[in-house]
Design brief:
The protein is mainly α. The mean pLDDT is 79. Strands 1-2 form a two-stranded antiparallel ribbon. The longest helix has 30 residues. The chain is 76% helix and 4% strand. The relative contact order is 0.17. Helix 2 runs antiparallel to helix 10.
């Protein structure tokens, strides 16, 4: 997720014509170095570098970071057009509801996309079974409230009402916040190397917007 702010900057450069200074490029490199520290280890027997995590997980994580960064820029562009389309006679509170309306649009399209993928993978029977399971639906409801409904909406609201750099930097703290639940719930041991890599990547994100 620390890739999201740099990817947002690159997407802004491509889609909005925003410029990237040498300081921004330096911050990107620091972020990538921090990520590299976390996922690459040295094979003591062969003295070679190798991935410390499954390649599939790394690629999916990179895809998630790119998707978050590019999606944030696209959402900002969409909200600007959405704002211009609000009639002059509309209530004053409509402007403040744009992040939630934008999230609803994303959720509807995302839901349709998932249904299409499930249909292709012939997973609709499993979906029907899951819907009938009360425990599954309880957790799915909680996740939906805290994820798309609250989390995504607040991220879009942050972009509208605060400088994008500060908002993106705060949102990039997800890897820091997730450490405690990972330890308490999954009983995972966090190694010093991972903490150092995390600290370096977060420093790179902060440099990206604060230099």
């Amino acid at each position: 997720m620390t890739l999201a702010p740099p990817m947002a900057a690159v997407a802004g450069w491509i889609m909005l014509g925003e410029t990237l200074s040498w300081k921004s490029v330096l911050a990107m490199l620091v972020t990538l170095v921090g990520i590299g520290i976390s996922i690459i280890t040295r094979d003591s027997g062969k003295h070679k570098l190798k991935l410390d995590l499954p390649l599939k997980g790394i690629l999916l994580g990179i895809g998630a970071g790119i998707g978050q960064g590019v999606g944030l820029v696209l959402s900002k562009i969409g909200m600007e057009h959405y704002s211009e389309a609000i009639p002059a006679c509309a209530p004053g509170g409509m402007e403040g509801m744009l992040p939630f309306a934008s999230t609803m649009i994303r959720a509807v399209i995302g839901g349709l996309g998932f249904l299409i993928l499930l249909s292709i993978q012939k997973g609709l029977p499993r979906l029907r079974e899951a819907v009938k399971d009360p425990v599954t639906m309880k957790f799915a409801t909680i996740i939906t409230i805290f994820g798309p409904a609250v989390g995504v909406s607040l991220s879009l609201m942050a972009v509208r009402y605060a400088p994008a750099g500060i908002a993106s930097t705060l949102m990039a703290l997800t890897p820091v916040i997730i450490i405690l639940p990972e330890v308490l719930i999954n009983k995972k041991k966090i190694r010093l190397k991972e903490l150092i890599g995390l600290a370096v990547s977060i420093t790179g994100v902060a440099m990206f917007f604060l230099l």
